[in-house]
Amino acid sequence: MKSCRVPGRGRVDASRPVTFTFDGRRYGGVAGDTVASALLANGVHLMGRSFKYHRPRGPVSAGSEEPNALVGTRRGPGRFEPNTRATVQEIWDGLEVTSQNRFPSLSFDLGAVNDAGYMLFSAGFYYKTFMWPRGFWDKVYEPFIRRAAGLGASPTEEDPDSYASRNLHCDVLIVGAGPAGLAAARAAAVEGLRVVLVDENAEAGGTLLSEPHLQIDGRPVWDWLASELSVLKALGVRIMTRTTAIGYYHQNMVGLVEKLTDHLPALPADTPRERLWRVRAGWVVLAQGAIEKPLVFNGNDRPGVMLAGAAQTYLNRYGVRVGDRPVVLTSHDSAWFAAFDLQGAGARVQAIVDTRPSVREDLLHEARALGIPVKLGHTATASSGRLRVKSLRVNPVQGGRVGAPVTIACDAVLMSGGWTPSLHLFSHTQGKLAWDEEQTTFLPAETREDCVIAGAGRGLWGVQAALEDGAARGRGVAAALGKDSTARAPRVQGDRTGTGITQIELPTDLNAGRAKAFVDYQNDVTAKDLRLAVREGMHSIEHVKRYTTNGMATDQGKLSNINGLNIAADALGRPQPQVGLTTFRPPYTPTTFGALANYHRGDHFELTRKTPIDAWAEAQGAAFEPVGQWRRAWYFPRPGEDMEAAVRRECAAVRGSVGIFDASTLGKIEVVGPDAVTFMERMYTNPWAKLGVGRCRYGLLLGDDGFIRDDGVIGRLAPDRFHVTTTTGGAARVLNMMEDYLQTEWPDLNVWLTSTTEQWSTVALNGPNAAKLLAPLVEGVDLTEEAFPHMSCAECTVAGLPARLFRVSFTGEIGFEVNVPSPMAMQLWERLWQEGQRYGITAYGTETMHVLRAEKGYIIVGQDTDGTVTPYDAGMGWAVGKSKPDFVGKRGLARPDLVAKNRRHLVGLLTQDGSRLEEGAQIVFDPDQPIPMTMVGHVTSSYHSEAVGQPIALALVEGGQDRMGQTVHIPMPDRTIAATITGTVFVDPENTRLKI
Amino acid sequence: MNKLVSSFTAAPLPQGAVARVSLAAPVARLVLRARGDLAALNAALGVTLPSVVGHRAGAGEIEVLCLGPDEWMLHLPPGQVGAVSASCAALMGSHPHSLVDVSGREVTLEIDGPRAAELLTLGCARDVEAIPVGQGRRTAFDNVTVILWRDGPAAFRLDVWNSFAPHVAGLLETGCRELAAEAA
Amino acid sequence: MARFNALSLLKHSLTGHKNWPEQWPEAQPRAEYDVVIVGAGGHGLGAAYYLAKQHGITNVAVIDKGWLGGGNTGRNTTIIRSNYLYDESARLYDHSVDLWEDLSQELNYNVMYSKRGVLMLAHTVHDVQSFKRHIHSNRLNGVDNRWLTAGECKEYCPPLNISPKARYPVVGGALQERAGTARHDAVAWGYARAAAARGVDIIQNCPVTAIRRGPDGRVTGVDTAKGFIRAKKVAVSAAGHTSVVMETAGVRLPLESFPLQALVSEPVKPIFPCVAMSNAVHAYISQSDKGELVIGSGTDQYTSYSQRGGLPLIEHTIAAITEIFPIFSRMRMLRKWGGIVDVTPDRSPIIAKTPVPGLYVNCGWGTGGFKATPGSAHVFAWTIARDEPHPINAPFTIERFRTGRLIDEAAAAAVAH
Amino acid sequence: MLLIHCPYCDETLPEVEFTYAGQAHVVRAADPASQSDEEWENFLYIRSNPKGPHYERWRHLHGCGRFFNAVRDTISDRFLTTYKAGAPRPELSSLLGDRT
Ligand SMILES: Cc1cc2nc3c(=O)[nH]c(=O)nc-3n(C[C@H](O)[C@H](O)[C@H](O)COP(=O)(O)OP(=O)(O)OC[C@H]3O[C@@H](n4cnc5c(N)ncnc54)[C@H](O)[C@@H]3O)c2cc1C
Ligand SMILES: NC(=O)c1ccc[n+]([C@@H]2O[C@H](COP(=O)([O-])OP(=O)(O)OC[C@H]3O[C@@H](n4cnc5c(N)ncnc54)[C@H](O)[C@@H]3O)[C@@H](O)[C@H]2O)c1
Ligand SMILES: Cc1cc2nc3c(=O)[nH]c(=O)nc-3n(C[C@H](O)[C@H](O)[C@H](O)COP(=O)(O)O)c2cc1C
Ligand SMILES: [Zn+2]
Questions:
Q1: Which of A292, A939, A870 is nearest to A558 (CA)?
Q2: Which stretches make up the Rhodanese domain (chain C) (predicted)?
Q3: Distance between alpha carbon A722 and the CA centroid of its chain, in Å?
């Protein structure tokens, strides 16, 4: 295989060979290579295919702006990713690389027929066709279009890697470790300022890595760089490489993604693949540099056509000569240096073709000295070569007229259309840009963030200028942070500066309408497409972008936006600043989902709250259900039991003897203070003033719109102390709402709220034997009907543990809720379990609790109510303290629609054929009406009831409370079920079972 | 992830060279709410309640952290709860306040080691280093409300509600391993 | 209007596409219009089209502060469905889906309405109850929507993780097969082109700064960056900016404007066949015809007009996506952006006359008004033309917030999009 | 992610510690019963939703727990000021400075 490695050049380590595969074939590279540099070193330019026309493509850049050389990369099972930029991915032994968007192979791709149909596939063609015949869209056209989608293939396996994140605070964050960033870091690293310097590349240095001929402060640039980096480290600067600033968010928060393992042959233990850093910086210095612009001409996309600066980087940083016989095509001085460097590395530069009629004398002089032919005032009008460029067709241009062509044989075309500052992160700040007519480019102007730009990122040329600007910006930032910095930039020798002009499409003598002059390489957007869009009325640059997809590829317009703007402006006949750029948005370069999800995967996606009894339930084989963040025991199946059987057994056990239930997840709020009762009066619908100490009451909480928000039993422990319970899911919400009213509406009240949800774990005992089981264990309270009637509460000792004992029932049976401090809950549970054995105590879960409460007509907020239900709708007018002057929701309840007739009321339903209704099923009065039917309600709860001997249901039905005994119909897909409206209480309406 | 489920049995926690996490011995915790003249409460508690959010005070075995303009967290030996509660209760009429025992609500994780502060950056968005030694803050760790006490440059305590502790400890454990790998 | 079809495409390709006419002219405002519509989003442009086509009112201007379609129409995740709970909503959205079916032909512009099916994932017992309620209600309203078991969900959407061990295991889903997506930009362009062809002026880059009223209270026109424009009727469909515009006419609305973010991945070969939504974790995903995964997020917590949005929300959205579709963990986010959505207290729109004679408003679509574009535009045009609501939008009044007669889809099910 | 100054803690902290709590200075009438339906609608639902400075409430949920007021520019999301609940509503002119 041909080697294009130039001995002695570059920063790669020739003594450390690395082997990898590309489309199954083995290639050798060396440590420090990227996939692109290693393939180029092997003479391989063809690395990908474009999106629409499947044109063969090679790398056009040497960095993260690459649109063409996108590959798939794999590291064993589960570790595959598409669309990786070959110009960024470092190689390691065993890396598997594959090409994409081709079939059957990269060099022979059937999809390339699209290229032949090029004239048909003009911008936006799909909006104009595929409409007839009408039925073809779903069956023929759309499937066809969809098959053409995408570049690489999606991963199909779960990702075995882990990802991480951290927060980082610093005084100064510097993005980009080129000369400007380095100098800014040096200047800012004074008097303990915390400075962070990041660069996306494997090593710091930026352009310095590609300019080995320089001397700084009299030393070879790379020596200077090495020592400068150690000085910065010694000054405490945190230098992060392989770290991309992906987005600039509000108030100087910058997101970084650090790549930790993608470059390593073996994965170290306990090391995530990537880490997301959320950096909050006092000041941000953007020193991102500039990006070179391609020239737009017919055939500017063949493998071997690349940016001149990239060729320079491949040579000087990677020691790779991208062509032996390159042609340089440029409108800017900088490409001349590329020509000189390549010539100096053994290439025979076929010509320097410059579009400008004249250039600096020293450049001409050096070209002459090196023996490079020069063609000034020329254009390029075509190239040839299928999988690699073979020649370039160039013509002189005079007075706007394109003269006769000559064809220059070559194996690479190194082009430069000048440079454009990297404005991406600055634009994320919604910073304003200013048009610079001289450089025909936008430069950063104002931003509201505490942010400055340094170096090439604001249009400055040359390493000296970058260093000086960086140092000045660094000093400025230090001054803004109250520190005096005196750092000065070092002196540079051998600096090569330059200027150029901006071109739109290069002039041509061929039919411009047929030219394949690419602006956005990946999306195959040509200059012609842009002009077509303008012609069709797309006069906003945003329309042009969306109509042509220019700038929407994975490089996000890094190479195409400014060329696109210039061409569109020309087509519109308007100056560029009136046309404007499209918006740059995060991320700066595509960012893995893994890094963005970081720790929030699996168990940590959302935490799971568990009660102290949870482990016991798990050991018993309980099935769990999620309720808010909690997981709760749902039912406790015995071997061979399904859910229905288990629930049936659990229900029977509670009604027959005694059941034990973990109610610890109930929200609890301690309301304390002299104004506690006033507060309760205002928050809840119910009256509280007369509730005696030691008594409890069911409380209903509304929003100020009058709809039910929450409920719970509330005990009065002292005149100035209430123990409030809330629903499991509502705990945080209710506390927030109470704090809101207290702090905002009634700040004068002397009352305070403390969450005790997790202070107290709650064990509920229910059943005819509950009191018998509990009484012997209780000290301080006499568990008789007289001394401790239903709806009592007390502080006492249970099983020797300090407890708050409530006599309440959510099942209709004699019930107690024993609250003990959470650390003691398991002790209590086990004691009750042990003592309960003689009563055949049965643990039950939330499902049984739901059945038993439904049999008694107790509502579950959020199931039987849905945010549109008033207390009256729910049949709980009794809970509303009508004589109270005000409570939250009272005024809302009086609104016209809330007092209207025919609201939906909560009622019971018994099916006439004894079948069980489906929760959510809709109810109608007239089963024979056509669709759309007039629906009058829905089933909110439905269970088989062992106690009733048939299924029962709760439902919201229009005017239901006035329709007792009437029949309603529930149309199901296969049949219609008739049901009778009943009251909501199915079991023991007189509450006789509640008595001890 | 089940380790701290009941939160009260000291489970093995990560022990790294650069950062360690361990479970602190149980302590009694009281939430005190009051406003206005605090002199009487100070006297009853035997400690002057700090009035700046985040500031701490201590006397004997009582440790107080000001959490809000009218809110304090008290850590004290379990045996002293009764006495403290009683002396405060006696003031209820003259100095309205709220004292609630939350000893069972949360656990305390101790975090130390040279990179303890960095470990906390896994979950804390605020600048942990900026909390002065000897102070504390209520803050969020990966969206979980926690109370962070800074006892030394590299020594912290983190109070976490029981049911959130496994999640927090799990993340800290991951972080300890990452930091150890980084240091290696 | 020059016809768009395969033949014309072929013909133009032979002449290098040099002769395509403008899809809509760059109109300058005239002194007076019968109707001025504020906001050239899908809803505003659509209303202009139906005013012209169905009501013969062609002396119409649609005025936008920026480029047409550049509001939420140009930045939404394009989910189209009609399986809403309440009769009022089901009727409105299903009317819209009916119009979607033929929209490409109607407009002679391929809007690529793709009936790939919308699958809404249930993760808890509560989700199941809620989705079943929707399914039953939809069936009786004649709206398609059916229940799938977890296994059937996986079959319909292979990238789905249905492991019962997941933090949010999939326990089933509700599938509307006729639901899907469309090319958002094409909807705006198609309506613009078809409306312009019927004489409607589309005036871009022209912010409306105030609505003017006469001494009798009636609207007289709008002040704009290009001067005062007289109008007999003014109709506002300015999405996130509705409050700001309506305030100038003295009308205050129950609206708050929030940033809503969305993002796309790098494009990949077809992997995701449908639209999947999980309200429990706030994740909405489909794959575009170009190959990107299009992912919707939730609103930021605070009101804003900044279109900037924060990183934590994106982190959460992506975490939710990788939780439910773990194979996407190594995919990459390509771009994220934000829109400003106007949210009503009941998460249902307002399409109505206002207390100001001659002033109409279509707003409050929050996170889900793209799907309603044709239907809403159609009934809004009716309301403007006849000065009375179409039966379909009659319930979507402003007054409902006073009486309490809300259409509370959110309270009923916490469903978005 | 915004940075928010809590007037109670006197610290400027990341948004994740706070929750947004809607428009500020929406007063719940002392005697709601006296309110017309329209007034109650205003209280419940009608919001200013301005493009520009917005008087709004936040809660330092994960910190001191206090609700407080803020003026934030909804175009830039920048806070012009934050102040304690009950403190008078600051005049915009004093926040924006002299712009002449
Ligand atoms: C990220 C995101 C995802 C979404 N996902 C979905 C989805 O999946 N499915 C769905 O159905 N919906 C979705 N939506 C909602 C949907 O995009 C909107 O409801 C819908 O597009 C609104 O259309 P519109 O025409 O009313 O508004 P817009 O398209 O926003 O148009 C309003 C126009 O008014 C203009 N305007 C504003 N003020 C003025 C003024 N003063 N003068 C002149 N012009 C003015 C604006 O410039 C804008 O062009 C999403 C929204 C967002 C932001
Ligand atoms: N003004 C111009 O048009 C122009 C053009 C080409 C080269 N130059 C030369 O560029 C040099 C200027 O130095 P400089 O320091 O301004 O730029 P630089 O290009 O040397 O350094 C910028 C660095 O920032 C990195 N970077 C960019 N975006 C990043 C992100 N989001 N996250 C992480 N890293 C990121 C780049 O990879 C690069 O390493 C001089 O040598 C100058 O001659 C200037
Ligand atoms: C459905 C849909 C698909 C999109 N696909 C892409 C895409 O492939 N590439 C891209 O760069 N942007 C894509 N975008 C985003 C747009 O570039 C742009 O961000 C969005 O329209 C908002 O506009 P703004 O970012 O200019 O404010 C897409 C947007 C939508 C709504
Ligand atoms: Zn605070």
A1: A292
A2: 35-79
A3: 43
Give dist(CA A666, CA A756) in Å, integer: 10
The residues placing their C-beta within 5 Å of ligand 4, an ion, are D 6, 8-9, 60, 63-64
pLDDT number for residue C414: 45
For chain C, the residues whose C-beta falls within 8 A of a C-beta of chain D are 241, 243-244, 252-257, 301-306, 308, 310-312, 345, 401-403
Is the Cβ pair A758, B161 closer than 8 Å? yes
Whether a cis peptide bond, with omega within 30° of 0, leads into A104 is yes
- What are the chain D neighbours of B53 within 8 Å (beta carbons)? 8-10, 63-64
- Positive/negative CA dihedral, A414, A416, A422, A423: negative
Nearest CA residue ID for atom 24, ligand 2: A176
- Residue D85 sits at φ, ψ, to 5 deg, of -60, 140
Q: Per residue in D28-64, pLDDT tens?
A: 999 999 999 999 999 999 999 999 999 999 999 999 9
State how far the Cα of A342 lies from the Cα of A315, in Å rounded to an integer: 7
Partner residue facing B69 (CB), from D8, D14, D16: D8
Question: Residue B15 above 80 pLDDT?
Answer: no
pLDDT of amino acid D97: 67
> What is the pLDDT, as a whole number, of residue A103?
87
Domain residue spans of chain A: 1-158, 163-290+421-493, 297-417+500-509, 517-580, 614-657, 661-841, 854-878+891-994
Residues within 6 Å of ligand 3 by CB? A 552, 556, 582-583, 585; C 74-76, 78, 184, 264, 288, 290, 292, 294, 334-335, 337
Q: What is the pLDDT of residues A270-325, one digit of tens each?
A: 999 999 999 999 999 999 999 999 999 999 999 999 999 999 999 999 999 999 99
Of B67, B125, B126, Cβ closest to residue D64: B67
Four-way CATH pick for C10-81+85-107+184-254+346-413: 3.30.1540.10, 3.30.230.10, 3.90.1640.10, 3.50.50.60: 3.50.50.60
CATH 3.30.2270.10 fits D3-99, yes or no: yes
Between chains, do D67 and A740 touch, taking CB under 8 Å as contact? yes
Q: Does the domain made of A163-290+421-493 have the CATH classification 3.50.50.60?
A: yes
- Going through A572-643 in order, the beta strands assigned E by DSSP cover 591-592, 623-627, 630-635
User: How is A227-279 classified by DSSP, letter by letter?
Assistant: HHHHHHHHTT-EEE-SEEEEEEEGGGEEEEEEE-STT-SSPPTT--SEEEEEE
Provide φ and ψ at C208, rounded to 5°.
Answer: -85, 120
Distance from CA of A893 to the nearest CA of D (A): 11
pTM: 0.97
Helices (H), B7-164: 39-45, 81-89, 116-120
Among A280, A744, A890, the residue with its CB nearest the CB of D32 is A890
Size of interface B-D (CB pairs under 8 A): 40
Low-confidence ranges of chain A (pLDDT < 50): none
Query: Could you say which of 3.10.420.10, 3.30.1360.120, 3.40.50.720, 3.40.50.300 is the CATH number of the domain covering B12-26+105-183?
Result: 3.30.1360.120
CATH class for the region spanning A297-417+500-509: alpha beta
Query: What is d(CA A828, CA A708) in angstroms, rounded to the nearest whole number?
Result: 34
Looking at domain B28-103, which of 3.40.50.300, 3.30.70.1520, 3.40.50.1110, 3.40.120.10 is its CATH number? 3.30.70.1520
Q: What pLDDT is stored for residue C14 in this prediction?
A: 86
Q: Which two tokens stand for residue A522?
A: 């990946």
- pLDDT given for residue C409 in this prediction: 85
pLDDT exceeding 90 applies to what percent of chain C?
A: 90
Distance of alpha carbon B183 from alpha carbon C7, whole angstroms: 68
